Structures are given as C-alpha cells and as structure tokens.
Amino acid sequence: MPKYVFGPVPSRRFGRSLGINNIPPKHCTYSCVYCQVGRTSFFEYHRRKFYDPDELVDEAVNIIIKNYNIIDYATFVPDGEPTLDINLGYEAEKIKNDTSVKEAIITNSSLICDNSVREDLKIFDAVSLKVDAVTYETWIKINRPHHRLKLDNILEEIIDFSKSYNGTLFTETMLVKDVNDNIEEIEKIASFLRKVKLNKAFISLPIRPPAEKWVKPSDEEKVLIAYNIFAKYLGKEHVELLISYESGDFYRVDDPISSLLSIVSVHPMRIDYVYKFLDENNIEHCILDKLIEEGIILNVKYGGYTFIVRKHPEIGRKKK
Ligand code: SF4
Fold it and tell me: Going by C-beta distance under 8 Å and a sequence separation of 6 or more, which residues neighbour residue 241?
C-alpha cells in the first residue's frame, strides 16, 4: 500500500488528481471547524521535516510514471498544512524533474509570510490559497489559527505573492452557515480578492463530514448572494462555485482495498462512490463491514449522505 500517494481522485479543480500526502495526521497551523480530517492534534507553526523526502519522492515518481496517462495533476493535499514540510520545495522540484507531471498544491496560506514558503509555492503549476475570512473575529472562529499567526500580514503577502507568481492561482473560500456567510464579511472578502491577481476564486461548501458536528453549509440563498457579490468585484469569469460532490472515477494504482484506504485517509468518500468503486473491482460490499469492525474505517453521516472515512486514532471529532 502506498504510504505517501493516494488516488487519483476526481478533483473539482485539478481533474484526475494524484494526491501526495507529505504531512501526517494531523499537523496544521489551523484547526478549521469544517476540516474533513478532524481536529488538529498537533498545532505547529515552524517548518520542519516530517517524512524522508527521498522515500516520498521515489514512491510518487514510481506511481506517476506507471500511471502517467490517468493523472492530470500531482497535488500536494495532505492530512495537514503542506507548507509546514521543510522539504516541500525539494520534493516538488524532484518529482517534476523526474516525471514532467503538472503539480498543484492546496494550502491554507498561513505561512506565506515566510520567504522560503513563497519560493516553494512558485515551483507549482497551480496554487490554491485559502481565504475564508478577512476580519480577525471571523478568522478566529472559522480557522482557529495558531496564536503566532497574524491575519493582516497573511493577507498582505497573498496580494504580493499573486503579483510575482506565474502559474495558475486559485483562491478558495469555504462558506459555513452563520460563521462567515454574512453579507458584510462576504463583501470584505470579495473586496480583498479584487487586489489579488487570481485566475479563479472558488466558493465552496463543507460537503464532507466536518471536524465539528455543528458545522453546516450555507443556505442556497446565501451561496447565491456570495456568488453575485464575488462576481460584482471580480467578474463572473473569475468566480466558480464548488458546491457539489466530485463526479468522476476514482482510479487505483495499487490493489483495490489499499487504494481505497489511501483515498479515504484524506478524502472522505460518499458511500455510493465506494460501492461503485468496489463493483468495478469485483469486491463484495460486505468488506466494508469487516473494515469497520476492525476499526480501520468509519461510517459517518453528514448532509443526508453516508461517507466512508479512514479512522485516525490520533484525531477526534467532536460529538456535539
Ligand atoms: S482544512 Fe486544511 S487548513 Fe484547515 S485544519 Fe484542515 S488541514 Fe488545516
């Protein structure tokens, strides 16, 4: 079973995206209320080594070379914040040199004030930056940041970075009901994004089981209002809604069950997609009961759907 690589999974931004998991669960600078990996167990702020970078690169390169025709992007989207990894630049550069695959990264932007992080991000063909809030109170409520982070500095650096970056720049704003979806905050976010040289601002909703049970996606009306406000500031061609579950096939690069476990480790999967995946690989659905019994996966209900999630013993989900 691959240790660092999962998928490819259908990604709403990056097509068939081979995930690269360069951070163990769950080390992050944030503990977002909607995080699909669960609450942050290890709040960190300083970049450091997590895994052996050559081991990670070797695994990724082998899998990419064997599956090149079914991968659109190799995406760093780990069980935490990918820029905490001090070897991120080395890994991204080496994988690109050895395979020529297009690379993307999904970051929460919190370490962008660090010059070495900005230099690493420039290696990627596409960068997605999180901007859930631009006012301090809302930022604290939704992202629950490490106490040493400063929102104003992060926002300023996002603008500067966007001007010096030559790849495809996305931003992502997750709308959580009654947390960051009031018109005033949305206007402020849109007005901030107007200063960012971006290709597209995505508005998304927490559609997978969140770290906190009380988290709900914004109502349709609020999403529409947000879309219109963003379009007013940025132009319709620069705004897109990411509010439905990914459609498309989950591919496998290993034996089917190992592949499934690698995917649900960072990417909770709706049960109907899990069934489809099992059917395509001629595996009986009762394998799920066995994996649940053995404590390897969990069955989580959220938003009217059942999801299969990998159980990480070090991560908790709040009960109420
Ligand atoms: S959503 Fe991303 S930034 Fe937020 S806590 Fe989870 S891993 Fe960290």
Answer: 202, 203, 204, 223, 227
The answer to whether 20 and 75 are in contact (CB under 8 A) is yes
Closest CA to 146 of 43, 27, 42: 43
Classify 51 as helix, strand or coil. Answer: coil
> What does the DSSP 8-state code read for residue 238?
G
Domain 5-242: which CATH class?
alpha beta
| Pocket of ligand 1 contains residue 35 by CB under 6 Å | yes
Question: What digits encode the pLDDT tens for the residues 173-218?
Answer: 999 999 999 999 999 999 999 999 999 999 999 988 899 999 999 9
CA atoms within a 13 Å half-sphere pointing along the CA-CB vector of 197: 10
Is residue 187 classed exposed, middle or buried when 0-12, 13-18 and 19+ CB atoms within 10 A define those classes?
middle
DSSP annotation of 176: B
33 Cβ closer than 6 Å to some ligand 1 atom = no
CA distance 155 to 171: 12
The residue whose two tokens read 């905490």 is 84
Mutation probe of ligand 1 site: the residue of 27, 31, 44, 215 with most atoms within 8 A of C-beta: 31
Q: Which residues contact 282 (CB under 8 A, 6 or more apart)?
A: none
